[in-house]
Design brief:
This protein is of the alpha+beta class and 103 residues long. It has two helices and four strands, in the order αβββαβ. The chain has a four-stranded mixed beta sheet, covered by helices on one side.
């Protein structure tokens, strides 16, 4: 027979898990849904020419030869990645340019 302190521990553990799933879990998903109003892409010059774009916090990557084509590709990739109800309202492009100055 298990000691009383272990039984009390498991009862408390079970209670905490139930509280999380019943109360806190739905709140987390509601907050996450409300916070997803925009997605940020890191846009860089590609080594072989053109541009690459990586989404921060999501598994989205695309590339193109021109900035206009890249914008279309990003919009299409976001539309394919998210369900309509989870779609971010704004796509923000963070343009990064790596410059080297010699002395």
């Amino acid at each position: 027979m298990a000691p009383k302190k272990y039984i009390a521990f498991w009862l408390m553990h079970d209670l905490i898990i139930r509280i999380y799933w019943v109360i806190l879990s739905p709140v987390y998903f509601i907050i996450k849904k409300q916070l997803m109003t925009e997605i940020i892409f890191l846009v860089e010059d590609a080594v072989e020419g053109g541009f690459t774009a990586k989404a921060l916090g999501e598994s989205i990557f695309t590339e193109a030869d021109t900035l206009d084509e890249l914008r279309r590709n990003i919009r299409e990739a976001v539309e394919c990645h998210f369900d309509p109800e989870q779609m971010p309202k704004v796509i923000r492009l963070h343009m990064v340019k790596d410059e080297v100055i010699t002395i």
